[in-house]
């Protein structure tokens, strides 16, 4: 309904501008294009969306301008490769990204070499290898009427993209790369005879180890935990955080158990950490693998009842998130001492008005485990801050400041000063205001960036 309303408004606005003359219409069209406001350089590359299209910008170069990548359909950002040289994105033939299929594309960081990786539609979120130029993803190997899950791994080698592995009619429903990029941990759903299971697999498909995480369900109860989703693995490869999705999509949408499993103690029962919504971006390990940051809370609305919490590898949970606040999108600094940047505001009743922000006055905060959270950004209640992207040392921060529900600017926060850096970033509010997928993806340069294919 909201998208149809927006389309109607666009048509009405266009009719009004044409009635007033062509020049105002052209000026309006130009005004919504992305504009680099500040020439200050930062050691980062940016991908962002504007009017459903994908754009890139090299923030390292003074005078560089936004470069448009897509010109038709709609694009959604997946993320940067480990070396920051390629960006994955999903492309849709129209503006409907909810009920129509998306296709996986990649483009070089300079905006050239855009290529479609497979001609079949993607099922679920593709995932880059953490160490090299390999990507794993599900596609529909069947038809729209009879979809069949097919799993693929493709890689860039000698300037070409080749298929490393493919498997039809796969049993597993989710996966995560192991930290070394040499293996996968996959999640198989519960059946009448078998409980939910995690499996360690080679990239060739060979299963190395199986880890039952629950007994077979009692299906007579009607509702049961079905599969581990959004797996996130500690840097040592030992501890696994995940959501327990139910066999009911409606029930799962309002919150599911969050658990922690220790692969070094496979017979030990997983630890319950809390309850949350199944968002990969809300469940993240610290780079040293000692703390798991997650957003806890029930109800599908992302504007209230959501709190940042931390769990150590033993499952001990701590939090100082105020009762009346709402937290979202935790992001760790890459360098020690590790801390989390996240968005926090006063909890608000869910109400969509395209002219207003969803959580008035929401700002970016920073918190290290065991310390009090500190507010980082400042602004008015007419704005809200999202998508924190801290530099590896945490001394600089890029973030998006929204001035209404669908429009904002990228700001740079450095040494207590905030600078509008890029204007006219646009996107969707996501599922009940979760603002996912992200409108902006930042790749910060690292002194020791992972080398593609490194062992």
Query: What is the first-to-last residue Cα distance?
Result: 50 Å
Number of strands: 33
Strand content: 35-45%
Number of helices: 3
Q: Please, what is the average pLDDT? A: 91
Total separate domains:
3
State the share of residues found in helices, binned by percent.
Answer: under 10%
**What is the CATH class of the largest domain?**
Mainly Beta
Largest sheet: 5 strands, antiparallel
Spatial sequence of strands, sheet with the most strands: 1-32-31-30-29
CATH superfamily of the largest domain: Prolyl oligopeptidase, N-terminal domain
The whole-angstrom Rg is 22 Å
Second-tier CATH architecture of the largest domain: 7 Propeller
The third-level CATH topology of the largest domain is Methylamine Dehydrogenase, Chain H
So what's the overall shape?
globular
Secondary-structure content class: mainly beta
Pfam families: PD40
Protein name: Translocation protein TolB
Family: Belongs to the TolB family.
InterPro entries: 6-blade_b-propeller_TolB-like (IPR011042), WD40 (IPR011659)
């Amino acid at each position: 309904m909201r998208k149809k309303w927006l389309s109607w408004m666009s048509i009405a606005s266009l009719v009004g501008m044409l009635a007033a003359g062509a020049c105002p219409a052209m000026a309006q069209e130009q005004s919504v294009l992305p504009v680099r406001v500040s020439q200050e350089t930062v050691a980062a590359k940016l991908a962002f969306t504007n009017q459903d299209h994908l754009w890139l910008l090299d923030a390292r170069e003074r005078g560089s301008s936004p470069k448009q990548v897509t010109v038709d359909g709609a694009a959604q950002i997946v993320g940067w490769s480990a070396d920051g040289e390629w960006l994955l994105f999903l492309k849709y033939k129209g503006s409907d990204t909810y009920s129509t299929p998306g296709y996986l594309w990649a483009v070089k960081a300079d905006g050239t070499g855009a290529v479609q990786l497979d001609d079949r539609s993607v099922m679920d979120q593709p995932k880059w290898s953490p160490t090299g130029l390999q990507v794993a993803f599900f596609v529909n190997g069947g038809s729209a009427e009879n979809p069949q899950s097919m799993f693929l791994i493709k890689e860039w080698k000698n300037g070409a993209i080749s298929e490393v592995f493919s498997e039809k009619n796969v049993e597993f429903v989710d996966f995560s790369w192991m930290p070394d990029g040499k293996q996968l941990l996959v999640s198989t759903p519960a059946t009448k005879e078998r409980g939910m299971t995690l499996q360690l697999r080679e990239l060739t498909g060979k299963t190395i180890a199986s880890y039952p995480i629950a007994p077979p369900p009692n299906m007579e109860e009607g509702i049961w935990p079905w599969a581990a989703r959004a797996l996130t693995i500690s840097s040592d490869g030992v501890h696994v955080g995940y959501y327990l999705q139910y066999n009911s999509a409606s029930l799962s949408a309002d919150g599911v158990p969050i658990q922690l499993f220790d692969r070094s103690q496979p017979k030990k029962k997983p630890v319950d950490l809390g309850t949350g919504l199944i968002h990969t971006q809300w469940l993240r390990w610290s780079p040293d693998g000692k703390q798991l940051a997650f957003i806890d809370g029930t109800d599908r609305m992302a504007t209230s009842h959501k709190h940042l919490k931390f769990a150590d590898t033993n499952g001990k949970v701590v939090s100082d998130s105020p009762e009346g606040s709402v937290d979202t999108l935790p992001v760790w600094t890459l360098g020690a001492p590790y801390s989390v940047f996240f968005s926090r505001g006063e909890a608000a009743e869910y109400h969509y008005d395209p002219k207003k922000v969803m959580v008035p006055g929401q700002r970016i905060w920073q918190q290290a485990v065991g310390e009090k959270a500190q507010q980082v950004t400042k602004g008015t209640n007419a704005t809200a801050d999202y998508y924190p992207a801290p530099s590896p040392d945490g001394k600089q921060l890029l973030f998006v400041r929204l001035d209404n529900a669908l429009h904002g600017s990228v700001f740079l926060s450095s040494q207590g000063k905030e600078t509008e850096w890029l204007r006219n970033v646009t996107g969707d509010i996501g599922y009940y205001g979760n603002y996912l997928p992200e409108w902006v993806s930042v790749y910060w340069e690292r002194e020791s960036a992972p080398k593609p294919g490194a062992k």
